[in-house]
Please model this.
Amino acid sequence: MSESYKSHVSFITMSAMASNLTGKPVNNKLLARSSPAQQNEFWVPNNMKHVCAEITSLTNTFCEKFLNDEYALICRKLAAALCRKRPSLFTKGKTLTWAAGIVYSVGWVNFLDDKNQSPYMSTKELAERFAVGLSTIQNKKLQIQKAVNLIRLDPDYTLRSRVGTNPLVWMVEVNGFIMDMRVAPPEFQKAAYDKGLIPFIPSAQKDSQQEQQMETLELRSPENRCVLSNDTQKPKDEGPTLFDELEE
Model:
């Protein structure tokens, strides 16, 4: 993780704690999602289904080729959210440029342009692979950012694998103070989870991971250890491997 990423995370976290200030509700909309009447995150109005399908087809293809399934999922979620806006941004402009703008926006939230992140892609490279201008995707990102109140480390558009490390996901207001639920007492975590304010109970997951580690340790035995000696020989090459194909 780069120093620039760490400093940016620290700045956003301190700003949010100082003013309640993520620009989003402290509960990150998780409470609304947990209610029986919650709106499907991928629901699209009938009159927008055709254009949404075109855009997500492009974002899916791009993410499959250059990024990963997590990015594809969040791009579909953002596209659906923009389709539900009245009026939708997609009523004007080309589907290709909107698809590029969506991928760039999700990448901006998740620091795709940070070389220490994986996957990594520069803004220039992203624009070139979409065959659109750099200024075009930057303009689309600004429109998208304004439409859905997008911020960096946005809890609603964070990659699933990074939810646990995103500080904004875990900020909950308790008696007028902002508390990071990852370091809160277990009873606070459970109460926040029961109300739909956090995605899972950190202490429970930690206990589960420790139990798994203990089970792994118990399965090990001295007899099963692999001891290297001077007589150890490399296995014979029995045919081509994936690495051979890559070298060719």
About this structure: DSSP finds ten helices and two strands in the chain. Residues 167-216 form one domain. Residues 49-66 form the longest helix (18 residues). The chain has two domains: 3-159, 167-216.
